[in-house]
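Translate sequence into structure tokens.
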Amino acid sequence: YGSRAVLDRVAHHLSLPAPPPTSVLDLQAIDPAALAPGQVSAQTGAASVAYIERAIDDALAGRVDAIVTG
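Result follows.
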């Protein structure tokens, strides 16, 4: 759960490989162009809630076995 574009941008910035496309469920909950790395915003908070709520729904429905947050 997350933004594929944000994860790709961070991976590129850190010279790391991007996660495989099938490993990220992108809910389109955030505009990656509007992000400022290291800055907290209402938009990032709302996206975080959307990702966690969807993960909980998927866990309760048996679509995933566990949820891990960091």
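Note: The two ends are 13 Å apart (CA to CA).
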